[in-house]
Amino acid sequence: MSSAYAVELPPACVGCAQDEAKASAKNSLMQALPISVWTDKEQYMHNEIITVTGQVANIASGYPVTVTVVNPLNSIVTINQIVVADDKSFETTLNTAGALWKYDGTYTIKVNYGSVEKSSKAQVELIGGEATSKPTTPSKCGPGQITASGQCIPFTINGGVVKSATLNTDDKSIVINIDAKSDGTLTVTPTKKVQDGIFMVLVDGQEWDDVEIDGNKVTVMFLAGAEKIEIIGTFVIPEFGTIAAMILAVAIISIIAVSAKSRLSIMPRY
Question: Which pTM value belongs to this model?
Answer without folding.
Answer: 0.43
